[in-house]
Write a structure and sequence with these properties.
The chain has six helices and no strands. It is mainly alpha-helical and 193 residues long. This is Mycothiol-dependent maleylpyruvate isomerase metal-binding domain-containing protein.
Length: 193
Amino acid sequence: MDSNTWTVLDESHAALRAVLAGLCPSDLLLPTPCELWNVTQVLQHAAGDQLGYAAAITGEGWPTFDPFAPSGELDGDLDAFKAFVERTMQASAAAWATVAADATDAPTPLPQGKMAGWLGAGAAGLDAAVHAWDVAVATGQPSPLSDGLAERLLPVAREIVEPLRAYGAYAAALPADDAGPAVTLLRYLGRAA
């Protein structure tokens, strides 16, 4: 399968890679728009979620930690941490590359279970892209969430987010007030963009 089948996932991973490249050790404890988590915890969560998407497809490689209770403690230095996050994105991309573009029952780690391939890959991308934005805001980097990417992720969010709010995965939606796609997406996810 062509790796470009899931361009929304590729672009979301590129957003996460961009903020990872801009990190320095002093950034790791900074607060983020995810109120209870610092930069390290957001990245641990994002990495764990990418492993979860990969493992749901392949049946192996589940995260060895709870992505929803990230420790905030590094195993090694910043370069090792960046390499770990990179490996989780590679695992996710490799797993999604085995899913047909027209799949109707792609496995996901979400409570909703199997879903259309475009939706599952989009959900993995949504997680990566939005957490890339969280880290960018926390560290003063430019937003990696373009309007074009947000426009493709918004239908995914509208399909999957409401049931996940009950689990505390997303805050209540905020008014978007005729904003552009990136702000509309972020506000739909409860972020004050």
